[in-house]
Design brief:
This protein is α+β, with helices and mostly antiparallel strands. The protein folds into 2 domains: 2-65, no CATH class; 123-354, TolB, C-terminal domain (Neuraminidase), CATH 2.120.10.30. Helices cover 15% and strands 37% of the residues. It has helices spanning 2-10, 49-65, 91-97, 99-118, and strands at 24-26, 31-33, 129-137, 144-150, 153-158, 165-169, 176-181, 188-194, 197-202, 207-211, 217-222, 230-232, 237-239, 245-249, 256-261, 263-264, 267-268, 272-278, 281-286, 289-295, 302-307, 326-332, 337-342, 347-354. The strands form 7 sheets. The chain has a 4-stranded antiparallel sheet, with no helix packed on it. A 4-stranded antiparallel sheet has the order 4-5-6-7, with no helix packed on it. A hairpin with a 6-residue loop joins β20 and β21. α1 packs across α2 (49-65). The chain is globular and about 85 Å long. Residues 1-11, 20-49, 68-75 and 113-122 have low confidence and may be disordered.
C-alpha cells in the first residue's frame, strides 16, 4: 500500500475530459459521481482520496515547521529582510479589528460638536458679574413673587393660596409696614407700578388688582391665561405666563397688544418669572434657577445672564417643593442698584451689576 501511495503521489495531474458537472470524489478507483452516472478517469488520476488527505497533512506540517517558508526541519526560519513582526495587541491590529466602533465614535463626536455649536453652543451669552453692596433682613415666611422699589420702600407681592398678600416693607429692618392679604382663592404673583398705581396679578384666576400708594384697592381687571411675572416699560404692561414668551398689554384696557418669544441662542427660554424693566432691558428670574436673565424686550433675545447661585449659602435656604427659589428683583434708580431675594429667604441683598 505504501508503494502504491507513493506512486499515486508522484504522478502528474491530468485535467479530466470535459463532461457533465461532477459532484464529489468517491472510491479508490477514481470514479466521479453526482450526476446519476459514473465516469472512469483512467490511470492518469493523480491522487486518490487517501493520497490527497496525506498530501494536505504534509502541507500543513511543512507550514508549521517552516512558518516563514524556509530553514531546516525543527529550526525556525530567519525573518525576511525588512520585515518586522508587530507585537500581539498592537493598536493597528485593534483598529483594524474594531474599525466600526472607531467610526461610530468619530461620528458621534463630530456630530455632537456640530449640534452643540448650532444649538447649545448658541446659549453662550455673556455673564455679567455683580458685587454685594449690603445685606438686609427679610421675612422668612414671605413667599416672594413680585418686588418693586418706590420712594425708599419695597413693595412686595407674596404667593400661596390663603397666604398671598401685597405689603409695604422697610428695607433696612425688613419690617412689614402695611400688609393687605388677598382672598384665600387667589395666589399672588407679579407686581409693578404704572404712574402712581401698583398692578398685581395672580397665578391661575385670571384676575388682577390695582392699588394706590397706600395699598388701597382701586379696581380689578381680568386677563386670559396664567400670570407669573409683571413689569412696565413706560407704555405696556409686560407679563410672563410660564411659556417662552412675553405678553404686552395696554394698561388701561388690559387688551393684549403683541406677543414676543423669549429665546436663548437657538432655544426658547420658558419659565420666565419675576421681572424688572431697567434702561430698556428686562431683568428676569427664571423659576427654580438661580440666574437673572437680561432680555431685550423688542426681540425677546437674551443678552446676558447673571448667575446668583452663591448669593445665599445653601444652609440658609429653606427646604420645600418650591421654597428657596431665587425670585424678586427691584431697581433703585437713585443708587443704580438692585434688590434681590427669594421665596422665604431670610435675607434681602442689594447688589450692583457689572456689565461686560
Amino acid at each position: 500500500m505504501r508503494t502504491r501511495m507513493r506512486a499515486h503521489a508522484t504522478r502528474r495531474y491530468v485535467r479530466p475530459p470535459a463532461g457533465p458537472r461532477v459532484g464529489r470524489l468517491s472510491g479508490p478507483s477514481g470514479y466521479v459521481t453526482g450526476t446519476g452516472r459514473s465516469t472512469d478517469l483512467g490511470p492518469s488520476v493523480t491522487l486518490t482520496i487517501r493520497g490527497l488527505s496525506r498530501a494536505r497533512t504534509m502541507s500543513k506540517q511543512r507550514r508549521e515547521t517552516f512558518p516563514e517558508g524556509g530553514g531546516e526541519p525543527g529550526v525556525p526560519a530567519a525573518p525576511r529582510p525588512n520585515q518586522r513582526r508587530r507585537p500581539s495587541g498592537d493598536w493597528r491590529d485593534l483598529l483594524a479589528q474594531r474599525w466600526h466602533l472607531w467610526l461610530t465614535f468619530v461620528v458621534i463626536s463630530v456630530g455632537g460638536t456640530v449640534l452643540y455649536s448650532l444649538g447649545m453652543g448658541g446659549t453662550n451669552v455673556p455673564e455679567w458679574e455683580y458685587e454685594v453692596v449690603a445685606v438686609y433682613p427679610h421675612d422668612p415666611t414671605a413667599f416672594t413673587q413680585g418686588l418693586h422699589y418706590h420712594n425708599g420702600f419695597l413693595y412686595e407681592s407674596t404667593g400661596l393660596e390663603g397666604k398671598s398678600s401685597i405689603r409695604k416693607v422697610d428695607i433696612a429692618t425688613g419690617q412689614v409696614l402695611i400688609n393687605i392679604p388677598l382672598e384665600p382663592r387667589y395666589f399672588g404673583e407679579g407686581l409693578t407700578m404704572v404712574g402712581d398705581q401698583f398692578f398685581q396679578i395672580t397665578w391661575k384666576s385670571g384676575t388682577g388688582f390695582v392699588y394706590n400708594t397706600d395699598l388701597q384697592l382701586v379696581r380689578r381687571f381680568d386677563y386670559t391665561g396664567q400670570g407669573w411675572g409683571l413689569t412696565y416699560d413706560g407704555t405696556h404692561l409686560i407679563m410672563s405666563d410660564g411659556a417662552a414668551e412675553l405678553l404686552f398689554f395696554d394698561p388701561q384696557t388690559m387688551q393684549r397688544v403683541k406677543t414676543v418669544p423669549v429665546v436663548l441662542g437657538s432655544f426658547k427660554l420658558d419659565r420666565v418669572n419675576e421681572m424688572e424693566f431697567v434702561d430698556g432691558l428686562i431683568y428676569a428670574n427664571r423659576w427654580q434657577q438661580p440666574v437673572i436673565y437680561v432680555i431685550q424686550p423688542q426681540t425677546g433675545r437674551v443678552q446676558a445672564r447673571i448667575p446668583l447661585q452663591n448669593l445665599l449659602p445653601a444652609e440658609e435656604r429653606p427646604s420645600g417643593a418650591d421654597d428657596g427659589s431665587l425670585n424678586g428683583i427691584a431697581y433703585n434708580p437713585e443708587t443704580r442698584t438692585f434688590y434681590v431675594t427669594g421665596k422665604k429667604w431670610p435675607k434681602l441683598f442689594e447688589i450692583r451689576i457689572k456689565k461686560k
